[in-house]
Amino acid sequence: MKLLVCISKTPETTAKISFSDDGTSFNSDGVQFIMNPYDEWYALVRAVELAESNGGEVTVLHVGESSSDIIIRKALSIGAHKAARVDAVPTSSMFVATQIVNYVKNNPQDIVFFGKETIDYNGAEVGSMVSEMLDLPYISFASKLEKQGDVFHCDRDIEGGIQTVELSPPFAISAAKGMAEQRIPNMKAIMMSKRKPLEVLEPFQVDEKVSISQYNLPPSKSGVKLIDADNMEELVRLLKDVEKVL
Amino acid sequence: MSQTVTETKHISQKTDQYQGHDYYGVDALLSEDHLLARDAVRDWVKKEVSPIIEDYSNRAECPYHLFKGLADIGAFGPSIPEEYGGGGMDEIAYGVIMQELERGDSGVRSMASVQGSLVMYPIYRFGSEEQKRKYLPKLGSGEFIGCFGLTEPDHGSNPSGMVTNIKDDGDHVILNGAKMWITNSPVADIAVVWAKDEEGAIRGVIVEKGMKGFSAPEIHGKWSLRASITGELVFEDVRVPKANILPNVKGLKGPLSCLSKARYGIAWGAIGAALDCYDSALRYSLEREQFGKPIGGFQLTQKKLAEMITEITKAQLLTWRLGTLANDGKATPAQISMAKRNNVHMALEIAREARQIHGGMGITNEYPIMRHMMNLETVLTYEGTHDIHLLITGMDVTGINAFK
Ligand SMILES: Cc1cc2nc3c(=O)[nH]c(=O)nc-3n(C[C@H](O)[C@H](O)[C@H](O)COP(=O)(O)OP(=O)(O)OC[C@H]3O[C@@H](n4cnc5c(N)ncnc54)[C@H](O)[C@@H]3O)c2cc1C
Q: What single string gives the DSSP state of each residue in B238-283?
């Protein structure tokens, strides 16, 4: 079984977010990057578990520059067998999806894993683009993936409940919380990851159809004002004169 | 019933929001190995140590189950070659692992320091091939717990005065004496014990649990390192096979080289405790408001925080340099003494300042500060006291021995 896990890089969750003065690019100075948690905790770990129990090979694929190598090594430490990196700045979802499609065409896979979204731009686009371009069935927001004989059962989180689907490889899937548990690599695995292959690939040219014109931070939240329950007058005054909603 | 409820409450009381602090970009001096090792141990501590440590510490109980976890993550002897059960990593990797463990708790770091630097290391460095094969893999995997017996009731700072001794008895030796303040002793499967032979030379002896005449009673009533178990080692005519004597070392150099290794780890570990206190104090100072603004907005609080991060940054650079020297095999015992002394004292001062920033909350176990502060009192004393390390530096720079 060949399992591909597409991993992206994202600012660490407590990073302070700021943009260039003209608002057209993200300011990455002093920002720590991590592997996207949905890719790591759920997609990668589940792929590794499936390979452990059924046999198979897990490859991690990343589109990014060499500064991402530490994230790839972490994925190898967690248990992926080999890695490939398309050496390019991941400018858009379409760009990244095209690189993944190109890789899968050259290296056919049984299952292509994604995280349900990357926690920076929250696009949740790459998985569906890839499956469309490769004409693969796509299960999004899956919280469970089990193999029974030749078929896979998965649970999808839907509004107010769970949908269970059944399908056979090849397919693509995006992992949500619940699919697996965090796996912390140990020192031996970290040292061993150095000996696992990492292939660096040239990017495939893509005509960008979307460009970013502006980033804006959300308006800063103002504090909550508590008004005494008996003080109706003050409440009306604030709503009328200050907030101007009445 | 009500007891169960309190316990659950204690165990899940809060999430660990710790974040590392790297004011001078020291991370850029670290390799991928170091960063991956550090982050893995940090994650492990958040998952396994932080949720339970206040409770265990409060009850003065050792979280024994962590021995297995420490072994699995690879915290025992990370810089010992893989074929002997270690991790095959360098000295800086060992350092960052100790830093992250002590960020969790000095007692948990002590569990790992003793096993790796004081038990596995002497067997690896001074043991016979047979001893290495017999003990190291089991120690590395946590199947065996080890302890290190040097200190005696009447000989602490002056270990060369020890009275524990071995006498020849054919293919055995007869061991007599007592050791005091021994981390892990009551639960240890083996003890590396330092004793004088009939010529007065200090030898390392591996004593196994269950040998006749050997006991290891627990020391109770510690206000420090409460989550670490400490005890005595008592030897009454214990017959130990000669095959259990470490063949390749004689004299104080044996135990001292182990201590150098452990002290090196403590120099890094102390930064972890300091970082945890600083991290908590910084967050608290921004959340807690008095006189209409966050207390972090007052100059006196800022002075405390600024001095803390300055001292932490200096310590980070000191240990990084020490680690680089250690990787080249050039770190001298005196350089290690300087770093151990400086960093532990720094961490203790930071714990005290951080405690003040937390006000009354700082004395409770809602925050890790008092636990670190109390732990660090041990760290200041064990592995060579604060003053003894000063005398080592003094002797090193003047060439004059001021110990006696
Ligand atoms: C929790 C805990 C765990 C420990 N674990 C271990 C262990 O696993 N294995 C082990 O072997 N030991 C262990 N120790 C022992 C520790 O290393 C000793 O406590 C330490 O070496 C100090 O010895 P002492 O307590 O006998 O103090 P002393 O040596 O009696 O010192 C008392 C004071 O006198 C000062 N002093 C002594 N000599 C001089 C001098 N020449 N000049 C100036 N001042 C001096 C000291 O600095 C100190 O302030 C542990 C201790 C503790 C508290």
A: EEEEGGGB-TT--STHHHHHHHHHHHHHHHHHHHHHHHHHHHHHHH
Give the pLDDT mean for B2-22: 61
Instruction: Write down the pLDDT at residue A14.
Output: 83
A223 near B CB under 8 A: no
Q: What is the mean pLDDT of residues B336-355?
A: 98
Complete DSSP assignment for chain A? -EEEEE--EEE-TTPPP-B-TTSSSB--TT--EEE-HIIIIIIIHHHHHHHHHH--EEEEEEES-GGGHHHHHHHHHHT-SEEEEE-S----HHHHHHHHHHHHHHS--SEEEEES--TTT----HHHHHHHHHT--EEEEEEEEEEETTEEEEEEEETTEEEEEEE-SSEEEEE-TTSS------HHHHHHGGGS-EEEEPPPP-----------PPPPPPPPPP--TT-HHHHHHIIIIIS---
State whether B87 and A73 contact (CB < 8 Å): no
- Per-residue confidence at B135, pLDDT binned at 50, 70, 90? very high
Please tell me the distance between residue B382's alpha carbon and the centre of ligand 1 in angstroms: 6
Q: Where are the domains of chain A?
A: 2-219
**Nearest Cα residue in chain B from A78:** B40
A2-219 has which CATH code?
Answer: 3.40.50.620
Q: What is the pLDDT of residues B78-126, one digit of tens each?
A: 999 988 888 899 999 999 999 999 999 999 999 999 999 999 999 999 9
The pLDDT of B295-319, averaged and rounded, is 98
pLDDT tens digits along B222-248: 999 999 999 999 999 999 999 999 999
Which of A187, A190, A192, A198 is best to mutate for the B interface (most B CBs within 10 A)?
Answer: A187
Q: Which of A190, A193, A194, A198 to mutate to test the interface with B (most CBs of B within 10 A)?
A: A190
CB spacing of B74 vs A187 below 8 angstroms: yes
Is any ligand 1 atom within 6 A of the Cβ of residue B378?
yes
Q: How far apart are CA A139 and CA A151, in angstroms?
A: 14
pLDDT value of position B8: 38
CA distance A238 to chain B (A): 22
Distance from CA of B271 to the nearest CA of A (A): 21
Give the pLDDT band of residue B313 (cuts 50, 70, 90).
very high
| Residue in B32, B72, B88 nearest the CB of A73 | B32
Q: Which residues of chain A from 147 to 206 reach within 8 Å of chain B, CB to CB?
A: 182, 184-188, 190-191, 193-194
| ipTM for this prediction | 0.91
Cα-flanking dihedrals φ and ψ of residue B79, to 5°? -100, 10
Among B151, B163, B226, name the best residue to mutate to test ligand 1's pocket (greatest count of ligand atoms within 8 A of Cβ).
Answer: B151
Question: Which residue of B108, B121, B147, B157 sits with most ligand 1 atoms within 8 Å of its CB, as the best mutation to test the pocket?
Answer: B157
Low-confidence ranges of chain A (pLDDT < 70): none
At A25 the pLDDT is 87
pLDDT at residue B10 greater than cutoff 50 = no
- What integer pLDDT is reported at residue B70 of this predicted model? 97
Global pTM reads: 0.92
